[in-house]
């Protein structure tokens, strides 16, 4: 008794496809994940946590130094020009220049830096290259980078922005 029934080719066998579809799908999913993850920029992850920890300690020391100096000021932004009036516990601030950084909360590519130059004791002027609007984090630093005043602000602001060493911003 011999059975000479013809056998269908391998690509017509349902069990072959049933057993092959899941490994093929996982291979395709893995390749897709690999391509997507390798093509995206991951700027939020840091490799050197100990260096960042030391940097955080330095930042805290800079904030404390600003509080010791009792830095307080008023910032006016009109179109692309900026005026800053800055006082210390000893009177009007007398630095040759100041650096003002605006940080976008989510898009690091939109961060801005303004260098203020002194026009009179306690009075500084700077220039923005483009209009800014929305919510921003800021920090104001001295020329030696030994103090920092930071905070959060919504721009544009029709009233002057009050900044102080506690990081409070109104405006």
Structure characterization notes:
- The chain starts with 13 loop residues before the first helix and ends with a strand.
- Helices cover 27% and strands 35% of the residues.
- The chain is built from two helices and ten strands, in the order H-H-E-E-E-E-E-E-E-E-E-E.
- The C terminus is likely disordered.
- Strands 1, 2, 3, 4, 5, 6, 7, 8, 9 and 10 form a ten-stranded antiparallel sheet that branches.
- The protein is α+β, with helices and mostly antiparallel strands.
- A hairpin with an 8-residue loop joins strand 4 and strand 5.
Low-pLDDT segments: 167-171
* Protein structure class: alpha+beta
Helix content: 25-40%
How much beta, percentage-wise?
35-45%
The gist of it:
The chain has two helices and ten strands; from the N terminus they run H-H-E-E-E-E-E-E-E-E-E-E. It is an alpha+beta fold and 171 residues long.
Quickly list its features.
disordered C terminus; alpha+beta; 2 helices; 171 residues; ten-stranded antiparallel sheet
Please describe the topology of this protein:
Layout: H1 14-39, H2 49-69, E1 72-78, E2 81-88, E3 91-92, E4 97-103, E5 112-120, E6 123-127, E7 134-141, E8 148-155, E9 161-164, E10 169-170
